[in-house]
Amino acid sequence: MSKTKLFRLLWRFNAFVIAIAGIFAVGILAIAILLLIKDATRTRNVTSVVNVDSEEEIDEEWSFGSFREVPGTSIVLLPLETEQNYSFEYSGKAANSVRNILFLDTVNQNQRWLVNQSEQLILKYKPVVPPAQE
Fold this sequence. Notes:
Blueprint: H1 2-40, E1 44-47, E2 59-64, E3 68-69, E4 75-88, E5 91-105, E6 111-113
Parallel strand pairs: 1-5
Antiparallel strand pairs: 2-4, 3-4, 4-5, 5-6
């Protein structure tokens, strides 16, 4: 009889261990699924991109960036930036870009845009300074 009780006790212990391992595995699987869903539905941010799709509804916000001085002159650059928010598959997407640059002369109070319209995409810009200022 003692062997039967020992095997019953061992069988119950095995069942308990298997149940705990199953609960642990289900918990790990649930966490993995939640992380995958969170990653698939997050807002994606990109720079130097402009969405021109006419069929999508695009929320576009225009703003000025930070002033940037041109060394050796009284001119400062002020970039005109856009942020576009639109839906992308299962998540949102945000695109930031520089569309134009305003040149401000702080002495003469003159201003001038780099281009006449703000339909271009400016990937990179750097002020050109006289050789003596470098």
